[in-house]
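Lab meeting prep.
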Amino acid sequence: MKTFSKRALLRASAAPAILSASLIATAAFAQTAPQAADAGDDVIVVTGSRIARPDLSASVPVAVVSQEQITQTGAANIQDVLAELPAVGQNISRTSSNFSTTGNGVATVNLRNLGSSRTLVLVNGRRFVAGLPGTSIVDLNTIPTDLIKQVQVVTGGASAVYGSEAIAGVVNFILDDKFEGLRFHGQNTLSDEGDAGRYLATVTGGLSFGGGRGHIVVNGSFDKDNGLRSRDRGFSDTDIPNRSSFASQGLFSPNGGFAAGPNTFTFGPNNVLKNYQGANIDGYNRNQDRYLGVPVERYLATGLASYELADNVTLYSEVTYAKSKSRSKLEPQAVANTDLTNADGTGYEGIPITNPFIPTAIRDAMVAAGVTSLPFRRRSNDIFDRSNKNDRETWRVVAGLKGSLAEKFNYDVYYSHGQTKDYTRSGTIFGPQYVNALNAVAGPNGPVCSINVDADLTNNDAACVPINIFGANTVSAAAANYVTRGGQLSTYRAKIKQDVAAASISGELFELPGGALSFATGFEYRRESSTEDFDQATNDGLTLGNLLSDTRGKYNVKEGFIEVLAPILSERPFFHYLGLEGAIRYADYSTVGGVWSWKAGGDWAPIPDIRFRGIYAEATRAPSISELFSAQSETFPAVVDPCDQAEGNGDGAPISIPAAALPAACLSNPAIAAAAAAGGFTYTTAQIQTINGFVGGNPSLNEETAKTLTLGAVLSPRFAPGFSVTVDYYRIKVQNAIGIIGQQTSLDECITGGGEALFCNNITRDATGRVTQVDAFNLNTGSFLVSGIDTAVNYSKSFGDNGKFDLVARWTHLLKQEQTSFPGGPTQKEVGQLDCYSCGRLGTGFRDKVNVSATIGLNNVSLNWRVNYLSSVKDDITDPDATRTGAYWYHDAQLRIGLDKEKTYELYFGVDNVFDKKPPVFGDTNPVTFPGTQTSANTYDLYGRMLYAGVDFRF
């Protein structure tokens, strides 16, 4: 345990109680390769630059996902398409958010495993309102999949072009604003087990008007994912290795040890009193209640409109509305006497011996043990449901003018406003009422609450109803109603607002030997605000969940940028093309002040067949509202005091660290030294379990900085039409990373690292020398480093008049994935390591990820086969004896049949995970395991073989 604690490193604070995760879909991705531009080519703006170019040539690799490639996956949610792009790490998703305090079922994108907060999401090149309160993270549930024309993904620092959050890269969703006609798309998906159903129905319509000067597109969609229960898959249907000792019938131990044997009592069938035989016999199977994937239901409406007011002036607008519903499913809450406090704030030792519900045999054991209070553990099945129900609503409006000046310069001026609302509620037990109900005594007509008969007490509660927790389903409806305050819910309400006003102009200034010098410049003003409001009882810590505080914050930023593209030479010997480019951006934040970002690079093509490219950039990320302003929230970290001579093993554990072997910092505390000399400085189990701590924001944070380098080559030989290869090296170093120092790390480093205030200021000890509180607030203290090589091979070949073959192979080889939590601290090397649910890794460090997609079409029939390869990983950071998972191969297939020559009417059938590959099983207590899954839920497929069929009709 101590080895693990010293390796506990930086934990990203992108969103409270939210985990980082990934889905298991596969897709084909086209790597853009430079092509010689024909005279008639349209100029376009490629993500990563604001300068229009005559082709998709760029000095950084841009991965493009086309509408056709999206349809080949059969995915209703665009996250499922992006999740298998090798540059995408573990996302927050429906398979990783069941245990989140809020935000269950959200969908995010996380480039290079640097966290979703370091990935900037754009829609039509413009920022989109966040979906997670206090952050910049966009919920991809708000993006209409069927309206996406193309997704462009750029990895590496792009802050000079787009501003903050673009440290890891940019994902730009380009919507089809020129669609004409009517399209209906419907799909039904089901596992081969007959569960995990998913349903999709969308309608898209578009038309031109005003003699072609105007265009409008409207899309409406509905999809529903029924989710999947842990109990419905063999690898996750039972807690491994042990069930929970918090059983629905209760566990009672006069001596408080709760060990199997004659001094610990529980109940068997028909609530017959018996001695406890262990968790696997008498315990509770939590996985019978949990979700592998949470259900999500979405309603989306999107409108895109434009009208040419004059020859060079176009008015445009975008309107988005998205509503999603989701829910988590947790086992009923476990309650022990150590979770409760008396009215005077002291710990609740247990049910008083005067309680008339105590069975005679247990009361006799209490008398024999000389105790008057009965420690207990029990699950609250017959009291309330603590699972979350979520309702999220997002709407966004964009209005702007764009056009040209003097037929030489292009301008764009727009304003956008977006809002996201989140309403989450769940049941709860109120601690004061639970204590009142447990403190029952015999009355003339049956048990009554002692507070209503003891004249010395002033907190009489006429509503109090005694509660009987001895046995399964023994709590009366009246008692359950009392301890839940009439079924009162814990609630969470959040609201995010974003306003953006921007203006830019671009064009050509003068000719250089290689072409015209192009530029783009502009200004942007942005205002962000976020509020998170928990119910008052949660704020006050009166429920049996953690004390959670509200967060309110806002900031604004004024930014200006300029970008230049200089074609130095073209059509010269050994210089088919040589170009340089650069950009610089200054941003003035109301929170951190002024920050600079810049990039410089270029590309060189000695001949048309090969091109070399490279970019160096210094990027920034300003701290989010949550990182700055989140109030203190209570946690109960599982920490071990390095001064504990029993090494955190609790009651009755033998002393394993002699007093002479204690660190000097321990013995310098007089209370610890005295206890060690008198027989041992140790903790009871209750003292360990009640160590709390607080996490929260820090208004003094500074911005993160990143240095990024991308170097690559593109080969597109003229002698092999349709064939191209790209190879790119990337390196991203993040410094002053915002995160927390792990609570165990603070304890270890304070004792063994010289007593630095950076660590010791986080720790509170009582008069006995024992730790009572360990805090973890946000700091600019960490660093991240990722590097690797991306390779893509593309081949397209037509044969005959109606046949075509397409092949896309993509491979990312990870060289480094590292993080350091504080200056001088240990560097955690994560290549080949599994993601860790409980220890804050960047994400699963697959040494190799490969995606291959092959499509063959003949006449009106096409078959697509996709393969996803994940190299072997393990977890020997927290488990030195960990075994490797072995390599994982996933196969997906789709058959499309056109009912007419133009394929305007299509039927399609697909299978995901064709060979029903099961995930590796690690067990519920393994740190890489997500609760209820027995595996790394954001890494491997949890659903198994999925079958789907759909129709895609265009009129």
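Slide two material, second protein:
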Amino acid sequence: MLKNQFKIAWRSLRKRKGFTLINILGLSLGFGCSILVFLFVQHHLRFDNFHNNSDRIYRFATEEHRDFIEYEAAVPPGFANAFRQDYDYAEKVAKYVDRRNYLITLDGYMGRKQFTSEVAFVEPEFFDIFNFPLVDGSNGAPIAEPNTAMITEEMAKLMFGDTNPINQTFEIENNQTITITAVLQDLPNNTFVGEQIFVSFETLKSYDEFMSSETWGGLNSSLHCFALMRPNQDIAQIENQLQGYVQKYRPNTKNVHHYKVQPLAQTHLDSRYEGGIDTKTLWIFSLVGLFILIVACINFINISTAQSTYRSKEVGVRKVLGSFKNQLFWQFMAETFIVSVLALVIGIGMCVSILPSFNTLFDLELSITTLFQLKFAGFVILLLGLVTLLAGSYPGLLLARIAPVLALKRKVSQNDAGGYVTRKALVVVQFAISIVLIIGSIVVSKQLKYAIDSDLGFTKDGMVMIEIPEYIELTQLNGLKERIAQNSSVANVTACFGSPGASNNNWGTGVVYNNRPEPEEFSLQVKAGDKNYIEAFDLELVAGRNFYEKDSVDELVVNETFVRKVGASSPQEILGKPLSINGGSLNAKIVGVVADFHDRDFHSSINPIFIAPAPQIYSELAVKINLASSDEALSHIEKEWSALFPDYLFDYAFLDENVAELYETEQRFLSLIGVFSGIAIFIGCLGIYGLILFFVVQKTKEIGIRKVLGGSIQHLVALVMQDFLKLIVIAGIIATPIAWYFMHRWLENFEYRTAINWWVFVLAVAIIMTITLATISYQAIKAALTNPVKSLRTE
């Protein structure tokens, strides 16, 4: 019986090849998108789930409560040892400090090799908490001693080729010689650890006094603390206990810390604490994938129900010969199943073919091997069953209920076979989904353009940012600046702690204004730079003057936000007032006020800042060049750099590119929603094209009569198109409030955001209308041009 049903189903599908191909193509695109979304979501949900005790691993984080709450995936340097000594909640506690772009130098028989790499300074307990096994499979961590390191297999291959790396040495930042004591197996791609060089924490004392200390005076986002908790711990109770640390270790500060305990599984999914992706984003991706599948199923349902009148005779004959309703239903379900299986196979093929491009777009390493895992097989089977049921059940029920008398007399109307109402409702849903996706694409694109193209309050075009060696002498730095500035393609040079915005170097500190008895509630951001800083970045002085560089710092410049925060009525009012910064380590008077500039991305409000010379913390050189002769300028800079620092690599980045990178997540989100919008529209067009074929056939006689009575071609084309245009308008009315709500919620993530203008909704509807008209115009014009004699002969 089952074999016979599939044989008949196959014959029926072959009989209507065109519509079968439309259904298969639409469903295959739906399957392909759903599979890609599944792989994407599964990848992010599986971060760091491979560790032996992943359910007991936690990260400590900090909420900083001042005039507003800031979130840091870090704790003060003294936290780890205090937690070890004060409580017995954890079996192991370990500190982990990640550093970017450290210079690695090797001197071997093949000569000198240099490259930059991320480096992690870790305590030995780190490898007891996490399951990163050595090459021989053991879990030892022999890096307790200073100047020892572990590297991955991939890094060992890069550094030493086929030579045994154990006991080999290399230098970090041309400062310390490090001995390799062990090799780790290559790290999986679904872990928070991005480094491939792990150096003993004791070595950090040679590089960073603050990070390796036991102070509670501040935070650095590079320092993380993890714990392997004992079984069955009450995390809420632990967090309550940690509130006592505020009074115990930080009693005299306005910056109140609330220490949080995060499960390892949540660290990647919480964007507040430097998570790789937000849970809301995964939900959005999942919903978009579901919408694409729904659009494909709607296509199938619409085309199938439209064909019901043409299959009515077949149904009538079967019923007269004794077929029951359930037999007819399962016959149609067999056809749906065959189409779904074929579409699934093609969809998997599509997924495999575009996976490399998808990985490039989202900076992932999703593997085809995932397609052979048990979870994927279960997902595919569930998806196949769901699509078959969703797409086939309604058309199957409609066919099964057709009265045999009406069917044999060819008197089955569209209402008898499901009617226009249901089909129109489904088309409206289809159009509404496409319009929502288009509105989303327009709003996201508009916000990104607003963020990237807006006046940030400083110059970013033509600014070249160069990292300078950590142990450079001030005389060397000044000499380098003078030699670089001699080229006519160089407009200005400044040494600084970081650019005004889009900098990895952010440092907030406490401040006492005008000898007030209490520190201010807010944190003051440090923007250290030499006397050229304000001019090089085109910062606007609205009051006072620039500072003078002296042997000791006694002058500084603040921004307009600082003026408002301290309650001054004008920038002039605060000129000459004293500031005590960072617990009194810097005392100076205010000599100038600059206009506000965006020191962070548009997600955050502008912070109060101060600018002052501080050569001891300069980490970058900013060079303003003429873009018309950029090659000449860069060549000159590299030449002067190499002459002064032959032992260091010359590396640079354009500031405008750094600004654009701040919105990398949004750019990828825009790419995804744009691609999926295009796919949804394409699938919808396939369905509309299939429907218009039936519509034209049904209207053939009417078109012939109207043409005989003098109807113009324009009028006849409008007759064919008007129903679809009405549905698009209705879909636009439904989609507008839905899209506005979701995009309004998305824009709330930005402190500075664009408006959702009325024309966005009109444009989205117009786009759908134009594409739909282009899809159906050929068949509409063809019907209008048909000889009316031939049309009138059509039954």
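Talking points for slide two:
Residues 54-267 form one domain.
The chain has three domains: 2-42+278-450+664-792, 54-267, 470-647.
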